[in-house]
Amino acid sequence: MAAAGAAATDLEVVRGKRAALFFATVVIVLGLPLWWKTTETYRAPLPYSQISGLNSLKLRLMVPVTVVFTQESVPLDDQEKLPFTVVHEREIPLKYKLKIKCRFQKAYRKALDHEEAALSLGNIQEAEAMLAEPSEQAEGSLTVYVISERCSLLPQDMMSYIGSKRMAVVRGIMHREAFNIIGRRIIQVAQAMSLTEDVLAAALADHLPEDKWSSDKRRPLKSSLGYEITFSLLNPDPKSHDVHWDIEGAVRRYVQPFLRALSAAGNFSVDSQILYYAVLGVNPRFDSASSSYYLAAHSLPHVINPVESRLGSSAASLYPVLNFLLYVPELAHSPLYIQDKDGAPVATNAFHSPRWGGIMVYNVDPKAYNGSQLPVRVEVDMMRVMEVFLAQLRLLFGIPQPQLPPKCLFWGPKSEGIMTWELDRLLWARSVENLATATTTLTSLAQLLGKISNIVIKDDVASEVYRAVAAVQKAAEELSSGHLSSAFAASQEAVTSSERAFFDPSLLHLLYFPDDQKFAIYIPLFLPMAVPILLSLFKIFLETRKSWKKPEKTD
Amino acid sequence: MAAAVRIFLLLLLLLGPGGWGQAEPPRDSLREELVITPLPSGDVAATFQFRTRWDSELQREGVSHYRLFPKALGQLISKYSLRELHLSLTQGFWRTRYWGTPFLQAPSGAELWAWFQETVTDVDESWKELSNVLSGIFCASLNFIDSTNTVTPTASFKPLGLANGTDHSFLRYAVLPREVVCTENLTPWKKLLPCSSKAGLSVLLKADRLFHTSYHSQAVHIRPVCRNARCTSVSWELRQTLSVVFDAFVTGQGKKDWSLFRMFSRTLTEPCPLASESRVYVDITSYGQDNETLEVYPPPLTTYQDVILGTRKTYAVYDLLDAAVVSNSRSLNIQLKWKRPPENGYIHYQPAQDRMQPHLLEMLIQLPANSITKVSIQFERALLKWTEYTPDPNHGFYVSPSVLSALVPSVVAAKPGDWEESPLFNSLFPVSDSSSYFVRLYTEPLLVSLPTPDFSMPYNVVCLTCTVVAVCYGSFYNLLTRTFQIEEPRKGGLVKRLANLIRRARGVPPL
């Protein structure tokens, strides 16, 4: 009876043990993965290593230069060596993680027949027109024609000529070291027309440490897919001035040709408005000597803000807006002049604010007040105004005045107001800036996602990141093979994709999920469930160890 | 640059005389109007209308030039291919029973409806973007307009302007009744006016007065209209309207005489030089049988009579562009006087500001003899902020007692005695007239029970659920893992031992 009872008890004990073990197994095999799976945040894989690789990217900007030798430009035995290619490479020293190298690839060849014919003309402009005709040159490339030493195409004291299309003319030399000497002249000209350190430094101004390129350096407009240009006529005193401006004609005549030339750098839209009763934020001072009013240079920063609230934001697009204001001062404050830092009136009576736009003060001719009653009808001389605004537009886009090598003939831009090689320079700078921006965005996104593990990474965010990385790499490749326009397009895609990934709203969904709330929900449920399981497991473990030790003792 | 300048000059010589020189008629025009209507209830309604007409065809691409028409709205029309746009932001409700029929009523909150051009392919997408952009322009929460509160009416909301086809799939309509209208909505609305708020009628638009009213409705209506009588080409019309109803008791301190200065705390000084018409109309139609209930100052130079909303009305007209109107006194302050005040009494009401000051309502009433007068105030129960509840929130909140101060006519005329000499209990209140005495009575304080939220509900739910789960699980677990054995019954229970104890004491053998 007792034995049967003990056997039954043993059976019960074993069954209980098995049940406890089964519970533990179910919890570990089923419960834990279920809990893990349901509380997990979805994180698509990202190319972290490639992103960190972008930081040590080495950019190599290639400028293809075609050098064309006419007859008698170099000694005959040198001409025999043509055609051949020379590469001139140079690192651009910038305090920046991107290492930028500039590489001029000079392809030397003999002149073709029609080029000979063109260069033997008497007038450099006709020659340029004739040379530009047959084929359009690729963006970023340059063609340098070497003419004979005594050729009359250039005035005798001039050594070189820089054209408005991507071409230049350099005088040759009859010398044993002809190629070396000419090579140096070509590099001089090419650096004036193509990439320089200044251009890149200005483009990377946001990414460089402040000390080197301090804030008073010109900061060009940030690169964007498009720009909106708004011309505003401010008439604070419509009771005395009835101002008319022919903005339609002015835009058609002066602004559109310039923007058409610049259209490779982005989309442009232009509009204009007239604002009445819009005043500057600063009261001008009276200067009794000249009985005129003036705005001192230090007060100019305070002029913009009050006006800006009236300008109205651009409702229809997300592109940056460039404002050009023409301010006709009220009768009580005219004439009004802008003074520079030394107190002398500025010749153009205008100033510009980087990345914002420009303001020009247009004084009404005092003769207009004689004998006529208010309001006085004022016709704005649009040519005077547009000259200033176009010059400001060039500055805002970061197109500096060309720096010419000595003894160089230069005519200045045609009616578009911009030379094609200046446009190329802008595209180089914008491509590099875009690459730097995209790299920074991707790096900070990768850092952020690595640091905060709560953030959900959706598939579309991940695909944008992949696209941005691929576009950065493609742009770098295209730059090093000298295809400027496709490099620029790729760099724009890189910026767009990287920013779309960075600002995707889905990244913010689960960002705030504090730990104390997690514990408040978990403890009342998980503690009572986990304690019995753990205790019985512990008990089973102890008993097993005891039963293992027993047989040892009997030995 | 020298070459460029030379080319420009050449162009100018060629194009100059044709381009400008001849005075073309102005392509935009602005009309502004203010209608002041004394309402039957004694309140005063003021309705502003600013109408900008723009003689231009808007094209989607290309350069556009704006003069009087605001650029922000013009860009909107061309970008979203709008045919019509109507947006109103309203605070309060137009009480037709007391105030009569309005010129233009709008629902409280925000109302937006728009007709799109037939060229729009995805109307819903454009509508979504449009409401988002408008919410940015007018600082209103129009971005909450989505498919859940947008409808496409098929019979009402026909286009108000020129329309050749009315395919209702290009119409969208939405109302946000919760939208609160405030200064931040008025400021962008004022910025759209050509004269801003510097000259003309817009000088009167002072935010702190306009929102101190019982009804405030501002609206923007854009529609295409005929440019000329034969309607050969289309112009765009922007109408900005603003209607307010000034409460006689809140702003007028109980008096019903009005002036522009009292309503807007401004007067009209100069017309907007850009406006081609700038007028103030004052409704001087007499109420009731006897005319001459109203008097307007300065006396109007012209009056205007017409049938408006089914009744014959007379308006006094002040034309600001007429030099005689403003120049007399350098500023125009139109005043209205009621010759015979419609009713007697004094009511002073100072509305409460949340967490700042309580309501104050003072009324001077002459009570008829043997009558019962009831003064009742409606109130709403609202939830407080959760930190503002007292430790015993269910007790309720006290409203302080009302005070009744009265001069009661005395039954017997008192002797005019020396005030210093009389007993102290009789000289607390100074009495000027011996035929009446002064009483001040107080009512009981009112205990209002406010709704109280369940402060601990979420955590209770969590704890309860977890406890239930844990208890079920625990007993189940125990049932399955414990070992059960049958215990041998022990030797006797408590009763048996007790019985044995008694038996031993008795000397009887135990059980």
From TrEMBL, chain A:
GO terms for biological process: attachment of GPI anchor to protein; GPI anchor biosynthetic process. InterPro entries: PtdIno-glycan_biosynth_class_S. It holds the Pfam family PIG-S. It comes from the Eukaryota. It is a multi-pass membrane protein. Pathway: Glycolipid biosynthesis; glycosylphosphatidylinositol-anchor biosynthesis. GO terms for cellular component: GPI-anchor transamidase complex. The chain crosses the membrane at residues 19-36, 519-542. Keywords: Endoplasmic reticulum, Glycoprotein, GPI-anchor biosynthesis, Membrane, Transmembrane, Transmembrane helix. It is found in: Endoplasmic reticulum membrane. Its main location: endoplasmic reticulum. Belongs to the PIGS family. This is Phosphatidylinositol glycan anchor biosynthesis class S.
Automatic annotation (TrEMBL), chain B:
It holds the Pfam family Gpi16. One of its GO terms (cellular component) is GPI-anchor transamidase complex. Residues 1-23 form the signal peptide. InterPro entries: PIG-T (IPR007245). GO terms for biological process: attachment of GPI anchor to protein. The keyword Signal applies. It comes from the Eukaryota. Keywords: Signal. This is Phosphatidylinositol glycan anchor biosynthesis class T. It comes from Capra hircus.
